[in-house]
Amino acid sequence: MKRILSLLLVMILVTFSACGAGDSAGTSDTSSADTSGTSDTSVKDASAEESSQESSESDLTLYYLDTSGYSLVEVEYETEATTASDLVPLIMEQLEKSDSEEGYRAVITEDFSVSAFSVNDEILTLYLTAGYNNLSGYSEVLIRSAMVKSFLNIDEISGVEFYVENTPLTDTSGNNVGIMTADSFLSDYVTDSNTPLSTTLTLYYATADGTKLQKVTTDAYYNVNSSLEQVVMFYLKVDPEESDAMAAISEETKVLRISVTDGICYVDLGSDFLSSTANVSTQVAVYSIVNSLCELDNINKVQLMVYSSDEEGSIDVTQINGLYEKNTDLVVEETDETSDDTELVDVSSGDSDSSN
C-alpha cells in the first residue's frame, strides 16, 4: 500500500519468564497448585508465542520512483525476515519491482544491478555494476536516495556507501560521495500531490573549468509546499543534465535557513559550503547562488551567512558573509542551449526553513 507520510519502525519485544511449582505435602493442595500452574503456563505460552510472531516480522517502508520519475513514493512491506543478511537481498529484490496500479516503478532497473554487498560496523556497502555511471543529475540523486532510505529500515544499518565496479562512487567533481544516512539529502523527495506546480527557472552554474558562470534555463516541477527560493537552492546542487556546466556548490551544502523580506533573500549556509566542488572558485560559488536567486521576481539582493567553526577550512567566512547584488561580469556569453529537465522537488521537509 502506498504511503505518503513517513512511518517510524517500532519493534516491541516482550519477555516472559516461566514460574515453577514447588512440592506440596497435601494432595488436594498439589492438585490445586497443578491446576493453577497449568493455567498460568498456558496463558504465558500463548503470550510468548504471540510475542515471538510479532518479533519475527519486519514492517518496512520502501521507496520507489513515482510513475513520472519526478519524486519518490513510500510503499509498506511486511516480511518475516529480521536480520541484515536476509533483509538486504530481499529489499534489493523488491526495489526491482514496479506496480503501475499502485503508482510506482522500480529503482533498480536493467540499467544497473547490485552485484554484491557487505555489512561492517553498521555500514552497508553496495557494489553496483558499471551501468550506474550512466545515471546523472537529478535522476541519479533520486535513485540513490530511494536506495539509502529503503536500506536504512534495517536496524543493523546506520549508513550506506556505494561502489561502482569496486571503485568508490564519486560526484562529477571526482569527490567521493562517502557514507550516506537519512540526513544526507536536502529533501525526502516524497510527494504528497499528484499535480505538481511547474515554472521556468534561470539558474547559473559553473563552467567546466570552474572560473565562470553559465546561464541555464530549465523547467522545474515542485510541490505546492516548497518555496521557489528553496527550489532554486536545490537545483543549484545538481548538475544540469543537458549542459556542459556543473553545480558550483556541493551537494552536501546545508541550507540552514532561507527567507525573503522586502526584496532581500536571507540565506544561512552550513560549513559544508566552504568545501566547494573541485576547481570552482569561491566567487563563482557565491554568485551562482546570488545570480540565480536574483532571477526570481521577488528578490533583488541576497544576504549570505556561512556558519563555520575556527577549525573548519582555510576560507575566511568574513570574506563571504555580506549583502550581494547580481553580478553578470562572471557570466560567459549566452548560448541557445536550454535544459529541458522535468524534475519534481519537495524541499519542505529537508534541512532548511523558509518563510516569505
Query: What percent of residues adopt helix (DSSP H or I)?
Result: 10-25%
- DSSP helical segment count: 5
Strand order of the largest sheet: 14-13-12-11-16
Percentage of β-strand residues: 25-35%
The assigned structural class equals alpha/beta
Radius of gyration: 26 Å
Low-confidence stretches: 1-55, 336-342
Strand segment tally: 16
The main β sheet shows up as: 5 strands, mixed
Order of helices and strands: EHEEHEEEHEEEEHEEHEEEE
Mean pLDDT over the full residue set: 75
Question: Looking at the structure, what is the overall shape?
Answer: elongated
Give the distance, in angstroms, between the N- and C-terminal Cα atoms. Answer: 36 Å
Overview of this protein structure:
By secondary structure, this protein is α/β, with parallel strands linked by helices. It folds into two domains: 57-184, no CATH class; 197-355, no CATH class. The protein is built from five helices and 16 strands. A five-stranded mixed beta sheet has the order 14-13-12-11-16, covered by helices on one side. The protein has a four-stranded antiparallel beta sheet with strand order 1-3-2-4, with helices on one face. Strands 5-6-7-8 form a four-stranded mixed beta sheet, with helices on one face. A hairpin with a 6-residue loop joins strand 9 (197-206) and strand 10 (213-222). The longest helix is centred in the N-terminal third of the chain and has 29 residues, at 27-55.
